[in-house]
Here is the input.
Amino acid sequence: MKPQRFIAKLADKEFFNEKFSKYVFEMEEPHRIDFESGQYVSITVDETGDRRSYSVCSNPDTHHSFELLIDHSPQGKGTTFLQNLKFGDEIDVMGPLGRFVLAPDKGEDEIVFIATGSGIAPFRSMILYLLQDLGEKRPVTLYWGLRHEENLFWQNDFQDLVDEYENFKFHPVLSRGSEEWPLCKGRVTDCLAVHDLPAKGCYYLCGNAKMIEDVNTLLLSKGVVAEDVHFEKFY
Amino acid sequence: MVEDSVVQTKQIGKYKVEVIRSKCISAGSCEAIAPGVFALDEEGIATVISQDGNSDDEKLLAAQSCPTDAIVVTDIETGEQVWPKA
Here is the structure.
């Protein structure tokens, strides 16, 4: 869909923790948005026309609204603008934008998503769409790297997907987890190094540039072809 | 008799655009908004294929849509950088 400018209004805010929140916007004019999972929108954040981009984290099968995951820690212009919004406030948006979308099915053995931090945003949209709408039956695995337990969110939502879809697996990885953290510790790359990664898999990477570089190198060393690794650098 | 000559003028906008290759992350929003001006090359990096393939408004919107501010818009007459704002 060709990007267009539209108006949306703030319908809900969900505060996950000190670092992350989810914002829900209802479409005003037009009343409908069509996008592909993985795409993003660009929002005007001040009177000079300055804009900030955010990946849509909701399922594209919902057309009257869209959801954005916000990382508050930069405390930049975009974060400040969004935090100051009141319910019902309208925003000027451009979208949908971006080419980081689900690749055509080439019959790969498995689909693997690897994210750090807010890089989870486009993957939530992709995973929901794959499982709920496309009825994907191949194994779908998500690796998500964060720093501390208190940064975690959506873990119950992803666990619900694990319970509902037997082909979905979720591996949260904490780089600075407490001693009590029972699951993968270290960087997400460390976790991947000890997991079986199919050479004939379709891989999606999103998050910090260093992670993408390191994981890409690891995947290529395991026989994954470059065309099967798709990535978007967030920071 | 002197024939009337037809003079054709090509409308050229007032904005010039440039791509900072090192900043481009291949998001492709510029190409989607102003396909007459921007295209992704074989490396997936945005390039300017024509300065007047789209209107000035579309060129500016394309620059503003870039998530990494990789597109610089300059006013040809004044030399002022229009986007990103200094």
The first strand of chain A starts at residue 4 and ends at 15.
